[in-house]
Design brief:
about 375 residues; alpha/beta; TIM Barrel; eight-stranded parallel barrel; three-stranded antiparallel β-sheet; 12 helices; 13 strands; about 15% strand; binds flavin mononucleotide
């Protein structure tokens, strides 16, 4: 059944296939996952209790349409967005390209989303207890981009279980510059201030994570980490899509503009994850994203330093059965490692991963 649905979806345009998947989930036409996950998968991160560490990455549910379905299926949490203050149409089509042989996607969507108000109204209807992260960004035409993050936090403060600050999408000009030392400091200072005032107003402190690009220079990691810690950020997600094109990518796609995700991103994002893990030395938990396509690659993310993981492109190629494959594999590998809980395996191979090159050598 899944195989038939997946091969039908692969025959239509990638964006239409995505819209169709959202409609199927909105209509409730999906198989509910098991109500309880193996206890070894439970993890408490950022003060939140996750039933399992696996989430669908941002971009899948940009407008908060299927956050409940995502958890009914068996994901440990949902991340909605990226949402920007105002509706944005994004770039011209085609803007999502499938690289079937590479099990990858290049997207240059450009933060297409319906804006804060639409997501807010949907999230307001929420009637269950699962964990929802809200991934916030800036409109393309906003001059002071830090302002858009401030209003995102204020808007969703009472609805979010955590925020993800997206400064790493490659498809909004100037956005990734917010990771530069001067701009990052200004942004994080503003975010810290707005959270402090919201904590006072609502009587609760909502955790804030930041999502990094896999293209940051490794020599900038210490400075980035220093700022992140100084301004009380609660978690770091590594990584968003890459503008780099690994040498083993099929040549005809090398010139397509946009962010590359999926299998070819795995090595780069996992090596960077491990380097960030080494740099934070246990002070901040990490969320490992990029190229998870199997139980083994999910395990590798944990062993490189991730406390939580997220996937997107792997689901496009493997479909929902991938989720159960990952859960079973993580449960088995935890036992094989002689551990009682998956969290005991976090970072156990970080040294090994951190020493690898960012890109795989040519096959
Ligand atoms: C079609 C598409 C849209 C995306 N949109 C967003 C987005 O709006 N915000 C964001 O933070 N990341 C976005 N991403 C990046 C993913 O969240 C994720 O970081 C990246 O795809 C790497 O994970 P993967 O290899 O499992 O896909 C998008 C990715 C894809 C493929």
């Amino acid at each position: 059944m899944f195989k038939i649905a997946r091969s039908l979806l692969s025959m239509i345009n990638a964006e239409r296939a995505h819209e169709l998947s959202l409609r199927v989930l909105e209509a409730g036409l999906y198989k509910r996952g098991s109500r309880s996950d193996h206890p070894c998968l439970r993890i408490n991160i950022m003060g939140l209790d996750f039933p399992n560490p696996i989430g669908i990455a941002a971009g899948f549910d940009k407008d908060a349409r299927v956050f409940k379905a995502v958890q009914d299926i068996g994901f440990g949490y949902s991340e909605v967005g990226t949402v920007t203050p105002r509706l944005q149409l994004g770039n011209h089509r085609p803007r999502v390209i499938r690289l079937n042989q590479d099990k990858a996607i290049i997207n240059r969507l450009g933060f297409n989303n319906c804006g804060h108000d639409v997501a807010y109204e949907r999230l307001l209807q929420r009637d269950y207890q699962g964990i929802i992260g809200i991934n916030i960004g800036a409109n393309k035409d906003t001059v002071d981009k830090t302002y858009d993050y401030e209003i995102g936090i204020k808007k969703f403060y009472n609805l979010a279980n955590y925020f993800m600050i997206n400064v790493s999408s490659p498809n909004t000009p100037g956005l990734r510059d917010l990771q530069s030392p001067k701009q990052l400091k200004k942004l994080l200072m503003r975010i810290d201030d707005v959270r402090n005032s919201c904590t006072y107003k609502y009587g609760k402190r909502i955790p804030i994570a930041i999502k990094l690009s896999p293209d940051i220079a490794c020599e900038d990691i210490p400075m980035i980490i220093e700022q992140i810690i100084a301004y009380n950020i609660d978690a770091i997600a590594v990584s968003n899509t890459t503008l780099s094109r690994p040498s083993n990518l099929k040549p005809r796609f090398v010139k397509e503009s946009g962010g590359l995700s999926g299998q070819p991103l795995f090595q780069r994002s996992t090596v960077l994850l491990a380097r960030v893990y080494k740099a934070v030395r246990g002070t901040i938990p990490l969320i490992g994203i990029g190229g998870i396509t199997s139980g083994e690659s999910a395990q590798a993310k944990i062993e490189a330093g991730a406390s939580l993981i997220q996937l997107y492109t792997g689901l496009i190629y493997q479909g929902l059965p991938l989720l159960n494959d990952i859960k079973s594999h993580l449960t088995e590998s935890t036992k094989r490692n002689g551990a009682n809980r998956l969290e005991e395996c976090i970072g156990i191979k970080s040294e090994e991963w951190a020493a690898k090159p960012l890109d795989e050598c040519k096959r």
